[in-house]
Design a protein that fits this description.
mainly alpha; single chain; 0% strand
Length: 69
């Protein structure tokens, strides 16, 4: 979770820096669109990773429960 937070904050800082350098509305819109696409991809990757971790933890816990009964 900490790694994801750091990546998201870095992406946001980069976005703000680029947006501050936009020379017109069209450029600002393009920067914002690219940022949103990257964030959506990042969110998908993070959700998949967290889901995998949850499934592994649940599977491991189930295995331990089955072994103790």
């Amino acid at each position: 979770m900490q790694t994801y937070t750091e990546k998201n904050l870095a992406a946001y800082a980069e976005f703000v820096g680029k947006l501050g350098q936009a020379r017109n509305f069209q450029e600002a819109f393009l920067i914002q669109t690219e940022f949103m696409q990257r964030q959506l991809n990042s969110f998908t990757e993070q959700a998949r990773s967290l889901g995998d971790a949850y499934n592994k933890a649940a599977t491991d816990a189930t295995k331990l429960f089955r072994m103790s009964t």
